[in-house]
Amino acid sequence: MRKKVTVVGGGFVGSTTAQRIVDAGLADVVMTDILESVAGKALDLYEATPITFSDAVVQGICTASGDYQATANSDIVVVTAGFPRKPGMSRDDLLRANYEVVKGVVEGVVKYSPNAILIMVTNPMDAIAQAAFKVSGFPKNRVIGMAGVLDSARMSTFVAMELNVSVENVHSFVLGSHGDDMVPLPRYSTVAGIPLPDLLSKERIAAIVDRTRKGGAEIVNLLKTGSAYYAPSAAVLEMVEAILKDKKKILPCAVYLQGEYGINNLFAGVPVKLGARGAEEIIQINLTPEENAALQKSAANVRELVTVLGV
Prior knowledge:
Rossmann fold; 311 residues; 10 helices; 21% strand; 3-stranded antiparallel β-sheet; 41% helix; 2 domains
């Protein structure tokens, strides 16, 4: 029996995520949205499968009534639903509106898929992931936030552009919250195994770090309406594949920390081993005092949002 993935939200991020999962033949996909047009998007995607040679079954379900029965027995639920960020709008501005959206979604999906793994994409992701964790009642290994994979990919792109090398050679590492206080780690970022500080000046690295932190806003400003979706959906695909194939792959993800890195009872982006049970292990690496201070600052900002939500 094929695996089943529900993608909540039929906007650009959700529909592109569904497409990537179906094209890869990883799982059957149910795409949900409060708009009836989701059925058309799903059918269009399904009709592409003979061309892409994917046997995945695709459904589009309108959940305006709050009925998530069609998502029953999902192995993974990817939550992208929420309001998009607009130019000049911070992720924090989205907090309360998207909390209400996600609360209803999580209550709906966990009713029918009590053993699923939740991958949270909705912004502000770290605080929303914590809200989903509390609302779902799931164990901490089954609620994971997508951010570090995306932010690391952005950093890798900028490094490859700077050095004019293949992106396959570049492995970047970004921890912390998904926002302006994220913590790119040049010491742990490499090009063909060579540490980034051995290849670039402090000034060039600082410029790349700054652009990485502002990567989402840069795209929002260029698009004028909406936000990024190609790279975010690719990041979700990597996480979904690691879980469904039990790859034990170490990726930077937002997970609930209970003392790791000196952070308690809070979601933060750290290296995580992803496998069939979700976040199977938190990998602790040595940080310099400066890196640790940046991570603690990032966590403190997430805690402010979590406090506002009361979760």
